[in-house]
Fold:
Amino acid sequence: MKLQEPTEVVVNEKHYFIRPFPAFRAANISGEVIKVVVPIIGSVLPFVSTSGDTSVLDTDLATIAPEITKAFESLSGDAVEKLLRDLLVRGNNIAVDFNGETKPLTEDLVNELFCGDVQDMYILAFHVIKINYGGFFGKLGTQSGKVAELAQKLMK
Structure:
């Protein structure tokens, strides 16, 4: 069952296990997610391969980490906080290896893990977006210039 299949990601040497959102929850927050992802797409298009097998969401995170941060900063503080809570803790869909145990990611644990290192929280949120909305943004390589043009128009 898809809802129970976690994807393991590593952010700053911490192992996270992300399960997909239920369909209605993903739809509920999709508008805010799009507000964050469209600026990232526009920023990373120059780095995306046109071979047809690479999605913009597969771009090396080390390359686009500053763009992820800028995208979240484009929202109001309240909107960023709400979106991060929705992505990271609201649905209990993320676990993390912490102090030798795999624990559900809670608000207290987010505070412990990301205090003074907020950029890593944005990177984890981007992984959650990639897992839940990757198919929505599709493969850019096979779409050629039309997707690039659309992303650039959406950013203006």
